[in-house]
Design a protein that fits this description.
Blueprint (H helix, E strand, L loop, with lengths): L2 H7 L14 H36 L4 H60 L3 H26 L11
Helix pairs in contact: 2-3
Pfam families: Snf7
Membrane topology: Peripheral membrane protein
Subcellular location: Cytoplasm, Cytosol; Late endosome membrane
């Protein structure tokens, strides 16, 4: 099987076999490697374009044929460079989308853990018991307020004396 068909059929690394596809980390690593490789190729093509431009200038009007050939090669390199730019943009977009998807997956997973923890905490609580407890607390607060009011009223010795 050729390398290209292995790439498109997913017959790549041994770590991704048997699980239905690569993990997000593996995919991100491969995308970053591809980005680096394409960036290096960009740099190479840019230097080739500069060389061909220098060759065209060097031959100038003296050897028009060699100058035209250099300009044609330069044009081909520029076309390849534009293709690489488009490919890099697509890869960057895909990498960012994958990173966002991975982040969303982690957030969702953590929210699920939090929901399970809340469920576990609330499992020991009964709404009827909580309601009864809140009524008891309210009654005790009312009693405490009455006691406080009774203590804070001025003692009127002799003013309310009935003959």
């Amino acid at each position: 099987m050729s390398k290209i068909s292995k790439f498109f059929k997913g017959g790549g690394s041994a770590g991704s076999k048997g699980r239905g596809g690569p993990s997000p980390q593996e995919a991100l690593a491969r995308l970053r490697e591809t980005e680096e490789m394409l960036s290096k190729k960009q740099e190479y093509l840019e230097t080739r374009i500069e060389r061909e431009l220098a060759v065209a200038r060097q031959h100038g009007t003296k050897n028009k044929r060699a100058a035209l050939q250099a300009l044609k090669r330069k044009k081909r390199y520029e076309k390849q460079l534009n293709q690489i730019d488009g490919t890099l943009s697509t890869i960057e977009f895909q990498r960012e989308a994958l990173e966002n998807s991975h982040t969303n997956t982690e957030v969702l997973k953590n929210m699920g853990y939090a929901a399970q923890a809340m469920k576990k905490v609330h499992a020991n609580m009964d709404l009827d018991k909580i309601d009864d407890l809140m009524q008891d607390i309210t009654e005790q607060q009312d009693v405490a307020q009455e006691i406080s009011d009774a203590i804070s009223n001025r003692a009127t010795f002799g003013d309310e004396f009935d003959e």
